[in-house]
Every structure is written in structure tokens, then in C-alpha cells.
Write a structure and sequence with these properties.
Blueprint (H helix, E strand, L loop, with lengths): L2 E5 L7 H9 L8 E6 L1 H10 L6 E3 L11 E5 L16 H16 L5 E4 L4 H6 L7 H8 L6 E5 L4 E4 L6 H7 L2 H19 L5 E5 L14 H15 L3 E6 L15 E4 L2 H12 L4 E5 L4 E4 L17 H16 L1
Parallel strand pairs: 1-2, 1-5, 2-4, 3-4, 5-12, 7-10, 8-9, 8-10
Antiparallel strand pairs: 6-7, 6-11, 11-12
Helix pairs in contact: 7-8
Length: 324
């Protein structure tokens, strides 16, 4: 039996809603999701959504029936209204995430699927939080990980993640670029089965620096890193100007893109495949996937949410688990 740990995200957002809608069916999905959260909250939210679920408490059972909604109980001891987030439960959110990670690392679960968290809320709660990616790396003692979004048609990984644009250039280094490309190729080969995948690397500056006239990073950092790895046999293209990088070119089959920063690459994949895109953390010692959207407080508890990204994230986790 394949069990997936599910950290549902902010309880005031749509995290509980998408879990209920995605996993309330009695259909055999090929895995059993175990939600980490407050049982009473999920029961109330299911009633609000008019979506009946048969909640059972997960206590480490080896065999779980597919027609129950399994919850690993973490009582919140606080009344949560849909759409009304409160920084006071920030610590609770990180506790749930930590528990799900640790228990996945310890092989109780085959993989981890995460719902949406609000970075602003957690930071307002007194916790320094950049995002899931950084927390997962720290909890698993992984020196470096890579954030990638994947859809049916695109794979886009990021050299930098949730940092201010003003700090991106300082984080672009020769060593870091090489590390990111190595992680990306390794996981594409080991988890997706690619043979020396073709990776297109985007430039940092407009027109990939225009020979240094629009910034030196492309010429002095990114290009040398690419040439060094090409000499090792890596199948790389770049650095290329981001404004034309995603156009399909005849006889050029690109397996993945490496963007320099968050809003350079992700708008393309989210525009072309929102709802079907999945966030994957590469380089971890376990499988972790996530939805491609945020907490959407304005939609919480109103039965208007689309659970498709959570379903896609879970099915991809299942696929990757079977591939390794």
C-alpha cells in the first residue's frame, strides 16, 4: 500500500476544501492519502461544502480502506473561519509540515503532497518563512534543492525562488548555476527516465545581457557554467533570452527549462497549464509535490474551488514513487 502524507496548508484557505473534494471519492486512486490536520475542522468544512466524508483517525495502521477520509490528528484548539486567516496559528502550520516531512523521511509514508501556505501570515506570526522549498531542505539536511513546476507540456526549474528581485543578481553564482543544472539533470534521469535530457538555460538580463551591455552576469557567470558542464557531456542550450526561450523551434527538443528567478519562468507554465501544473522539489531524499496555487481565502468554504491541481500533484507523486 502506498500512503501519501498530505499537509493541507492554511486551514482558513482552500487547503481543506481541495483535500475534501479530491479525496472524498471512494474511487481507488492507487494510493491512500493521509491528511495532517484537525479532525473537527475537516468535518465542519465538509458539512459547509455539502460533501460527505467518512473521517477515520490514522494512528499508523498498515492497511487503510479507500472509502474513508484518513486524518492524522493534530488538534488546532482554535475556531477557524474560512477566509479569515490568523497569524496566531503560524506555529501550528509549521508543526504539521515538520511532522509530515519527518514521518515521510522515516518511510512511514511513500511521499509528501503539500497544500498552499501564506508566507506573509507565517512571517507575521513571528516565524521566518521563505517557502516550503527552504523548509524541506533544512528538515531533511539537504544542502541544496531545486524548485520545479511541471505540466503536461513544460518543466521549468528555478535558480532562485521566493526572494526580492533586487537580491536575485547577488544569488547568481557560477557554483550555484552548476549545482542547479546537476540537480535538474539527475532528477530528470532518475525520476522521469530521461537519457541526458536537453536543458535550456535562460539568461538573467534582457536579451541574455546583449554581450555584456545589459548586464555582466550572463557573460561572466552563466555562460562559463554552461560551457564547463557541456564539456562534461551535459546537453545544454543557453543562455538564451527569456522573451523568446519558450518558443518551439524546429529540430530543437527541450526537456526542461532553467529560469533565473520566480517570475521569469513561472508565468509561462501557469498561463499554459494552470490547474494541471505541479510544484516538485528536486534533490530531496524523498518525493514531494505540491499544488500550483495559493490559499485563495476569498474562495474558502464556498464550494467554488478547483481541486485538480491537488489531484495532479498526488498522481505525479505516485508516478515518481513507482519510477524510483
Amino acid at each position: 500500500m502506498i500512503k501519501l502524507a498530505v499537509s493541507p496548508g492554511d486551514p482558513a484557505g482552500i487547503g481543506p476544501d481541495i483535500c475534501i473534494k479530491a479525496f472524498s471519492s471512494e474511487e481507488d486512486l492507487g494510493f491512500t492519502p493521509v491528511i495532517f490536520g484537525d479532525m473537527e475542522l475537516f468535518q465542519e468544512r465538509a458539512e459547509n461544502l455539502r460533501c460527505p466524508i467518512k473521517i477515520k483517525e490514522y494512528k499508523g495502521q498498515k492497511q487503510l480502506d479507500s472509502d474513508s477520509f484518513w486524518i492524522s490528528s493534530y488538534p488546532l484548539n482554535k475556531k477557524i473561519e474560512p477566509g479569515r486567516p490568523d497569524p496566531s496559528y503560524a506555529g501550528y502550520l509549521l508543526t504539521i509540515l515538520k511532522e509530515a516531512v519527518v514521518r515521510t523521511i522515516n518511510k512511514e509514508f511513500s511521499g509528501l503532497v503539500t497544500g498552499p501556505l501564506n508566507k506573509e501570515l507565517i512571517n507575521k506570526g513571528g516565524i521566518n518563512f521563505q517557502g516550503h522549498t527552504e523548509v524541506l531542505a533544512r528538515l531533511s539536511n539537504t544542502p541544496k534543492v531545486l524548485m520545479m513546476l511541471t505540466s503536461k507540456t513544460l518543466k521549468v526549474a528555478l535558480v532562485t525562488t521566493h526572494v526580492p528581485l533586487s537580491k536575485v543578481s547577488d544569488l547568481i553564482s557560477y557554483e550555484h548555476i552548476c549545482d542547479c543544472i546537476r540537480i535538474l539533470r539527475k532528477d530528470l534521469e532518475s525520476k522521469w527516465g530521461y537519457d541526458n535530457p536537453c536543458i535550456k538555460v535562460l539568461g538573467l538580463n534582457p536579451h541574455a545581457g546583449d554581450g555584456g551591455y545589459l548586464g555582466k552576469e550572463d557573460l561572466e557567470i552563466i555562460t562559463p557554467a554552461i560551457k564547463y558542464l557541456q564539456a562534461e557531456g551535459f546537453n545544454l542550450i543557453g543562455p538564451v533570452s527569456a522573451d523568446t526561450a519558450f518558443f518551439k523551434k524546429e529540430k530543437q527538443k527541450v526537456d526542461a527549462f532553467l529560469a533565473m528567478y520566480h517570475d521569469q519562468g513561472l508565468p509561462v507554465i501557469k498561463t499554459s497549464g494552470f490547474g494541471e501544473a505541479v510544484n516538485v522539489t528536486l534533490g530531496l531524499p524523498f518525493i514531494r509535490t505540491s499544488v500550483d496555487h495559493g490559499t485563495a481565502y476569498d474562495m474558502a468554504g464556498k464550494n467554488k474551488v478547483d481541486e485538480s491541481s491537488l489531484i495532479e500533484a498526488s498522481l505525479l507523486a505516485l508516478k515518481l514513487i513507482k519510477n524510483i
